[in-house]
Amino acid sequence: MSVPAGQHTVRRHNLALVLGEVAGPEPLSRAGVAARTGLTRGTVSSLVEELIAAGLVTELAAARGGPGRPASPLRLDPRGPAGLGLEVGVDTVGACVVDLGGTVRVQRTAPSDHREDAPDAALGRLAALAADVVAEAGLPIAGATVALPGVVGPDGVLERAPNLPRWVDVAVGAALSTQLRGLPVRAGNEADLAALAERWAGGPADAVVVSGGIGVGAGILLDGALFAGAGGRAGEIGHVVVEPDGRTCHCGGRGCLETVAGLEALTGPDAVRAAGRALGIALTGAVHLLDVPAVVLGGGYPGVGPLLLDAVRAELAARAFSRAGVEVRYSALGADAALRGAATTVVQDVLADPGAVIGAQGQVRKERSASVSSPGTQ
Amino acid sequence: MSVPAGQHTVRRHNLALVLGEVAGPEPLSRAGVAARTGLTRGTVSSLVEELIAAGLVTELAAARGGPGRPASPLRLDPRGPAGLGLEVGVDTVGACVVDLGGTVRVQRTAPSDHREDAPDAALGRLAALAADVVAEAGLPIAGATVALPGVVGPDGVLERAPNLPRWVDVAVGAALSTQLRGLPVRAGNEADLAALAERWAGGPADAVVVSGGIGVGAGILLDGALFAGAGGRAGEIGHVVVEPDGRTCHCGGRGCLETVAGLEALTGPDAVRAAGRALGIALTGAVHLLDVPAVVLGGGYPGVGPLLLDAVRAELAARAFSRAGVEVRYSALGADAALRGAATTVVQDVLADPGAVIGAQGQVRKERSASVSSPGTQ
């Protein structure tokens, strides 16, 4: 039996509805939002005022221009709550701030080799970089997501990263949250976050998005959303076997895709052809198991050039029988797709449920006024 | 905004609720069903009468026995609408009838080699076998599902079957429906239906269920349901590449799992070890891409013996790094799992929505009475 939605739930739902319209491609006034949502103008105005007060929406000056242009267009407030993206690479750390409108406001990457090191020093460097980037952006930060080059379990713990042998079962999000004064920090696999970035940039709804770096991973998109598998670890294409008697992999296996197609293996045209063939073999398995119609090669792969892409296409054409004409293309995003994807997950969460942000702001105000009115309790 | 459910919708929902309780492991009386569902005794009695009239439920004589036993236990009517399972194998056809309580009432398999033949003759043989089996069972048939040894698209068309080269884009369900006087016939991949049978027999909720025959396929279970992939063709593990320079496969590829681990390749212990290794390599890919914790080997594999199972386990233990301790076991079901799974899908549909069956029966009654009252219109 369904229970009638409470006033509070309805208002929270409607806040998201209105913010979604403001975030759309077409500039809309309050009247335009009312027309598109079916809400009354009075309701829309009340909701818009709340979104403006929370710093999520701004109302531009009335345009005097051409016919049909809205009088006072609303837009996402670029000074509103922003997303902090963080990344632990194999030999880098990165941080960026993406504002509510999706614009990258500050982005920095620094060398930091983690192949031999334990996590503590690296996480300290990343937290310091994050603090710098946040200070430079000068925006309120709604939360952070950290992209990690390994297997992230359903609880957000980095379970294993083959190229980072000392990082085993590390609660990276919790550790960074402590260093960043309690800012909520979630963790995700870097290839998964790069795949989401690909989708948000207009990529295909159903695809295997391969992220080529020192390690190789993939994010699997089905119906526009990340496919998690049974436990959130899906998409570890770098450890699909492509040469059963091949080289030992850092994961402990043998002949994994990563041993042939990791960026550090791509020295010269023969290696590139071999990598393309190996990618095609592994992707044949992915197409047969997942029934996906498209493959996007991202991370460092687009920089390798057409030889790699041609080899992958030829291999898939010769081997994948269950789907004719699997589309294979390079990503148009750079190697920072995972970092930007990480920041954008935070922004997407704000847009999906602005009521949560407004509720948190209210809580902060209450706590502040309580501490002002009764300092003795501190 | 949610709309209140209409009386009709509520009654249909409640019919399924009551039938679900009757189908449960514990024998329940009308009072027992009322207690478990929260419906009034009057409502339950009215729904039970409707289910009895439709031939779905039967009420046993009041038990005089021990304390706590229900007075007049309800159970699924074994004379009620049954499911017809059909199968086109590579060199067999099969048909079986499973009653509402899940018991196989009649089952027959006949040799019928389809490797060289076009579909027409084979489908004629299968339809004749189906008619025999239905006549022998003497039960009303709610519908049929046909298991096919190839790629079945989202519209139920057999798109390709590597071992049946002349079966390309065949609407098998529609063809059989015509031959079976309009009985609804759906089509599914044989490995998918075998995986569902495995689940209904108490198997794991998250698993790759491999079906070993002349061809090799898999059904992927996630959260207890079949994983379809982007277009319904997921699970074609037989064409995952395990020997990049291996033998040419019927699919046109090279070194597919099926070329090494299809049952016809298993001649002698060396071949069994090679097949186990190949299965382990392909399953390593599946575990890494899908993050599944369990593998069930079914079809003809359990008959091969422990050598195969040990080889698969050893290979997975050495190669699958993202999940420790993937469970690998043989299926306890026989090689007819797909056939029984096909019949059981029909029974499951009846149990999930008995209102649809009752509605169809009402429609038949209306048509019959119309034809009796105005014979001139025929």
TrEMBL record, chains A, B:
Alphabetically ordered keywords of this record: Kinase, Transferase
GO function term, MF aspect, one: kinase activity
Keyword flag Kinase: yes
Family: Belongs to the ROK (NagC/XylR) family.
Source domain of life: Bacteria
Signal sequence range: none
The protein's name in its UniProt record: Putative NBD/HSP70 family sugar kinase
Ranges of residues in domain HTH marR-type: 17-59
